[in-house]
Amino acid sequence: MNESSLNIKERATLRHIRNWIVHHGRPPSVRELMKLLGYSSPRSAAMVLSRLMTAGMIRRRPNGELQLLKDVENQPQNSQTVDIPLVGSVACGAPIFAEENIEAMISVSKNLARPGNRYFLLRAVGDSMNLSGIENKDLVLVRQQVTAKDGDIVVALIDDEATVKEFHRAGDAVVLKPKSRNKKHQPIILARDFQIQGVVIKTIKNVS
Q1: Looking at the structure, do residues 135 and 42 belong to the same domain, yes or no?
Q2: CATH number, domain at 153?
Q3: Most buried among 56, 65, 67, 155, by the most CB within 10 A?
Q4: Are residues 50 and 88 in the same domain?
Q5: What's the predicted TM-score (pTM) here?
Q6: Which residues are known catalytic residues?
């Protein structure tokens, strides 16, 4: 079995998994999939999942959750999209792109994710960038790079945690500024001990 031979139910299952991960921050359970697919028994949903695992479309992560390896929208005949990893929370001590951090592969238009660069998707948490149009649970499309210029919105790794902030240089220091209506968020001033992971090029609004 390969991805070109998926039936309607299998394709629908992949879409439900992708959408659930994007909107809920986790994959659906077998029982949730059962309801989404209109089955009366979780065994029916489990059988579909088994076939998709055999096809190499999904697998179980070490914690038992489903991981989407290929997006159903990015089939071979659709050359206008590319699969981009959706990165969840960054595990302590693990690189942001570590396999255990990848929740799913999501299809993105090549007009946004242009060939020749590497990209990832990150789920925004909190309201520290809402004046820049980035709200809690929005997805940001990030072009992977280790440098930035003043005014870029970057993903920076500080003490093994990813943060999205506006980048500015101040002499020998770097200032990561929030852009928020919430005054509790204050600039972060750094001289070292941080890494730029990439520059945000697009916000994908959460519609759940």
Answers
A1: no
A2: 2.10.109.10
A3: 155
A4: no
A5: 0.82
A6: 128, 165
